[in-house]
């Protein structure tokens, strides 16, 4: 009996279609922002803030929508480059496209959709490493405290580990700025190469080899964030709105950002933060980040 084989073009077409469907999928699975407040004033404040933010946020608007008004050539171009009005999505393995996007002027967030696989230590490795430092200190953000200026305070690693695994009744806690001391970096190398500090450190050197070279890598610092279920981070600006990325090691996170990015938006974020989410021009965009995703 002769073996039936599909033409390569058909196989590649289906693979491209699966990749495309994965890339342009931006609507998250079900989530509930109506988390329990336990009648706590601080948690109720965060709850009300999230309700307001949710009213003024939508999923990314896809450029691929409304293709019926375009020619076949325009449709093909847009499907092969499935960006959106609000965010640029690149799938894992498409390094050429990621590199090309990183070289462009930053106007939209880039979502690097990963497949979840990684050679880096995972969340279990992190918890194990932390368990060896039970009496060491780290800081936690606790929204149950009414006074915002007192919500960040020091605690111990031992107390932090007691909060995991969390459950729906857990307190909303964010354990902050846990240094990456694994000796490996989680940042994709293409992203790291486009960091301005990397560009500066590699620009002015004469020798490509070790002999006669005084080049030293300006290694970026990385930090972990451990969050319990239903934990919320207030709206803020990291590092002046640049050189910041996040990768999900475990769980999922709904990420909100202003639809209209610019110096005016950054200034408003820096001055008012989470106080008035309803006053941002264009509202907010929300994106689901899953294991392996980099934003």
What tags apply to this protein structure?
29% helix, Jelly Rolls, globular, three-stranded mixed β-sheet, alpha/beta, 295 residues, 9 helices, JmjC domain-containing protein
Low-confidence blocks of residues: 63-68
Which class do the helix and strand fractions yield? alpha/beta
Q: In which range does the helix fraction lie?
A: 25-40%
State mean pLDDT (0 to 100 scale): 76
Give the overall form.
globular
- What strand line-up does the widest sheet have? 5-4-6-7
CATH architecture assignment name: Sandwich
Protein name: JmjC domain-containing protein
Biased composition (Basic residues): 1-20
Organism: Talaromyces rugulosus (Penicillium rugulosum)
Region (Disordered): 1-33
Chain-wise SSE layout:
Layout (H helix, E strand, L loop, with lengths): L7 H17 L16 H15 L1 E2 L13 H9 L7 E4 L3 H9 L6 E4 L9 H9 L5 E6 L9 E5 H5 L11 E7 L9 H5 L2 H8 L19 E5 L25 E6 L4 H10 L11 E6 L6
Parallel strand pairs: 1-9, 2-3
Antiparallel strand pairs: 4-5, 4-6, 6-7, 8-9
Can you offer a commentary on this structure?
The protein has one domain: Jelly Rolls. The chain is an alpha/beta fold and 295 residues long. The strands form three sheets. A four-stranded antiparallel beta sheet has the order 5-4-6-7. It is built from nine helices and nine strands. Strand 2, helix 4 and strand 3 form a beta-alpha-beta unit.
Can you summarize this structure?
Residues 1-33 are annotated as: Disordered. It comes from Talaromyces rugulosus (Penicillium rugulosum). This protein has 295 residues and is of the alpha/beta class.
């Amino acid at each position: 009996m002769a073996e039936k084989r599909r033409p390569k073009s058909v196989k590649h077409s289906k693979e491209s279609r699966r990749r495309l469907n994965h890339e342009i999928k931006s609507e998250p699975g079900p989530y509930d922002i109506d988390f329990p407040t336990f009648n706590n004033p601080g948690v109720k404040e965060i709850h009300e803030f999230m309700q307001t933010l949710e009213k003024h946020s939508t999923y990314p608007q896809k450029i691929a929508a409304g293709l019926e008004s375009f020619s076949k050539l325009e449709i093909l171009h847009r499907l092969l480059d499935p960006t959106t009005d609000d965010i640029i999505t690149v799938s894992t393995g498409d390094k050429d496209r990621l590199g090309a996007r990183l070289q462009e002027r930053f106007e939209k967030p880039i979502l690097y959709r990963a497949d979840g696989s990684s050679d880096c230590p995972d969340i279990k490795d992190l918890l194990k490493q932390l368990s060896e430092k039970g009496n060491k200190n780290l800081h936690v953000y606790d929204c149950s405290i009414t006074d915002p200026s007192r919500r960040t305070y020091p605690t111990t690693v031992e107390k932090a580990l007691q909060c995991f695994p969390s459950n729906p009744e857990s307190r909303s806690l964010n354990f902050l700025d846990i240094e990456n001391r694994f000796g490996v970096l989680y940042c994709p190398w293409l992203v790291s190469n486009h960091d301005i500090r990397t560009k500066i450190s590699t620009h002015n050197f004469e020798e490509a080899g070790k002999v006669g070279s005084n080049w030293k890598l300006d290694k970026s610092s990385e930090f972990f964030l451990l969050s319990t279920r239903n934990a919320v981070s207030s709206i803020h600006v990291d590092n002046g709105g640049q050189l910041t990325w996040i990768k999900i090691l475990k769980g999922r996170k709904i990420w909100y950002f202003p639809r209209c990015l610019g110096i005016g938006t950054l200034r408003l974020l820096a001055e008012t933060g989470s106080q008035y989410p309803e006053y941002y021009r264009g509202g907010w965009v929300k994106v689901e980040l899953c294991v392996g995703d980099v934003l």
